[in-house]
Design a protein that fits this description.
The structure is a homodimer of 429-residue chains.
Chain A: E1 2-5, H1 12-15, H2 26-40, H3 42-53, H4 64-72, H5 76-94, E2 103-106, E3 109-117, E4 120-124, H6 133-146, E5 150-155, H7 165-174, E6 178-181, H8 184-193, E7 203-205, H9 210-220, E8 225-226, E9 234-239, H10 245-256, E10 263-268, H11 271-285, H12 291-299, E11 302-305, H13 309-319, E12 323-327, H14 331-335, E13 343-346, H15 352-357, E14 383-391, H16 393-409, H17 413-425
Parallel strand pairs in A: 1-11, 4-5, 4-7, 5-6, 7-8, 9-10, 9-12, 10-11, 12-13
Antiparallel strand pairs in A: 2-3, 3-14
Helix pairs in contact in A: 2-3, 2-8, 2-9, 3-8, 4-7, 5-6, 6-7, 8-9, 10-11, 10-12, 16-17
């Protein structure tokens, strides 16, 4: 980790730059995968699965008996933990289901909005070293609460052609409507355009590698909605000298172990604290199974000393971190000043892992500075709001002349006529 | 207008296809404009303004004295109408400002979300034949209510190098923070990356021609948020034989006059009503100043007879119209069945023009079937929601073991450690 002491403000922008991965031919490779899936359907999905992952599953859709087998290899402890996390996530996200009032704008003019579920959604769950059933929970629970009719999951099978039992268990527990053995850009294309086995959806969610991310970006241009733009995971911790350096180091490492392109930052107003955390980080690092990954992430990472905690907050708002931990004595009042962040963890015991798994908040959050304009996934991500209006004769009589004047000022006489013809019909009422 | 009588269900998908505009080299042209603005700033904006619009304004930023002049040429009637529309839009959108409760997930675990304004937003208002001050209202009023600190507007100047007085008047009335004489893809690029005069923003809103639309799509790939993907405006009307054919025709024409690529559809369950509306459309068309535009839009447009009103609703949900008018006797109960639409107008007197200008709902809505997954612009479009959590010692003691089990099941031991180190420190408490 680089230590940066009292950088001038002119340097802040540069310190906010995320590690970049350049892949010049990525777009053309992914575009070609998408086009082949579009024209060849299931066959293309099987083909790419064999080509990229060395596995060709017997069937794309997971069959009922495959779910049954999955149940048996999961301990009761783990099932209980999954259920508890599910309950907490449901409790937090249920509060996002609201009914808005009808507004009487004026006599005879009533307007309102209604939240309606996106009918068909697709969730992508990456494969790789660990089964991310927590991400499946974070996406499928709000989808279920929103009331989406079709909730499908694509996830790459293992070398044995099977889906990890924990993914299957979680999918069934929450009630997704279909799970498919497909990964990478081909899975995104399949959900965007549909194949013989995999249904077309209206919105695609979930993290993934650069191929998945690029595929989501490209299908978005065809009008398929996506959850948010993606980037490597990151945490920024603001800590003062009352924080426990061991806790801070553990939080930095919990983020660093995600991937070599992750970035972790600590800001503090105490020079000695920087060294304490640094030595704790490298001490704890030695004990991590994913030590090599975390080590590489730490190379992109920084411990920064700033003159005051207010400066730390200002820097954090400029950086707009995905996760922000405020491990400072007056954390609650500093939290009020946060304007750009995905999720904020307040105080010494609020570790990021809590939000990653079980406190109830969502862990699908904007990275790469996107927290300046994007929110994390929520029930709203699975809804759209339709506006309604009901205007009666009295309403149009009163509001109509205003509309006529405004439409005429925009030279849209057809718009004006739609009102005038109604007002005229009411003249003798 | 084409009349289609009782099409088979197998044909519905085809009938939902929107008119396509193919522009093969559009992307490369727009990408090059963006790159030049990125590297040359203001100079590039001036240059493209001269090249594409034949005008090079003296300054990009509108100066205070230009606002003063604008005031004088607007009638009191028109000012009153603008104020009334503003009040209604404010009333409707204010209801979208909500504070969410803090959820106590378990003892010592408190989670909540806070809505925070996107700091800097850019609104694009097209130039052309008519000054779209209504669109400026629809974008700037929710931005103001959300609390955005910087609300800038880009709009192309007229041949005289000036901005239309109605745009200036509206901008000042609502309180935008800066208005700039820039149009086209160069304006979008300027707001996305910043120039000497035009500030960089975090999210860009507003309609525009194909260059503007493509530019928004391209800057979105760089992480600049945009309101929604764009397409030509459209209306779908469901009418029965109790509707007034004149009203229906006027509503169809009010949409058709937007542009030659607009699409208008009427669905009905009454064969005679089709002919009545058709003859009314062509009668009223003759009187429209924008007759030529509307005529071309009608060529893309359809009157469709279906067996029942339920079929009409089913077709409409498949089409997912931007605007949907339910001009049927039991409109309110059919409205309950609508799952895909931007904005719904219920009953004989609820014309689309009302929502376009003054009833209070927003008129920036998803087109091209995007209503299946996107909502119209609202106060939320100018906010992001940050999640917060505060866990105390008792909270982590209770929740911690669950997190440890889940993290371990995902092989993320760093995540587990962040909890374990805290639990260990509390062992003797």
């Amino acid at each position: 980790m680089k230590t940066i002491l009292l950088p001038e403000k002119g340097m802040w922008d540069e310190l906010c730059i995320r590690p970049q991965i350049e892949r010049d031919n990525l777009e053309s490779v992914v575009r070609s995968i998408i086009n082949i899936v579009k024209s060849e359907g299931d066959n293309a999905v099987y083909g790419f699965s064999e080509k990229f992952d060395g596995v060709s599953p017997a069937n794309l859709k997971v069959l009922p008996h495959e779910f049954l087998i999955s149940d048996k290899n999961i301990s009761k402890n783990l099932k209980d933990a999954i259920r508890k996390a599910k309950e907490n996530i449901e409790r937090f996200h249920s509060a996002q289901l609201i009914t808005e009032p009808v507004i009487e704008i004026s006599k005879g003019v009533r307007c309102w909005r209604k939240s309606v579920a996106i009918e068909k959604v697709g969730l992508y769950i990456p494969g790789g070293s660990a089964p991310l059933f927590s991400t499946l929970m974070m996406l499928s629970i709000p989808a279920k609460l929103a009331g989406c009719k079709e909730i499908i999951v694509c996830t790459p099978p293992g070398k044995d052609g099977k889906i990890n039992p924990l993914i299957l268990y979680t999918a069934r527990l929450i009630g997704v409507t279909g799970i498919y053995k497909a990964g990478g850009a081909q899975a995104i294309a399949a959900m965007a355009y549909g194949t013989e086995s995999i249904p077309k959806v209206h919105k695609i969610f979930g993290p993934g590698n650069q191929y998945v991310t690029k595929a989501k970006e490209l299908v978005q241009q065809d009008g398929i909605a996506i959850d948010m733009p993606a980037g490597p995971s990151e945490v920024l911790i603001i800590a003062d000298n009352l924080a426990d350096p061991g806790f801070v180091a553990a939080d930095l490492l919990s983020q660093a172990e995600h991937g070599p392109d992750s970035q972790v930052l600590m800001l503090t107003n105490d020079r000695e604290f920087v060294e304490k955390v640094k030595s704790e980080v490298y001490k704890q690092l030695e004990l991590l199974p994913r030590k090599d990954i975390a080590f590489r992430a730490l190379e992109n990472s920084r411990l920064i000393l700033l003159p005051s905690l207010n400066d730390c907050v200002e820097f954090s708002n400029l950086y707009a971190p995905e996760h922000l931990i405020l491990n400072i004595s007056d954390a609650r009042s500093f939290a009020e000043k946060i304007i750009n962040a995905g999720s904020v963890f307040i105080g010494n015991y609020s570790c990021e892992s809590a939000g990653d798994y079980a406190s109830g908040t969502n862990h699908t959050l904007p990275t790469n500075g996107y927290a300046k304009s994007y929110s994390g996934v929520s029930v709203e991500s699975f809804l759209k709001r339709i506006s309604f209006q009901e205007i009666n004769a009295a309403g149009i009589k009163e509001l109509g002349p205003t509309i006529e004047i405004l439409a005429e000022a925009e030279s849209l006489i057809g718009h004006k006529n739609a009102v005038s013809i109604r007002l005229k019909s009411l003249e003798n009422d």
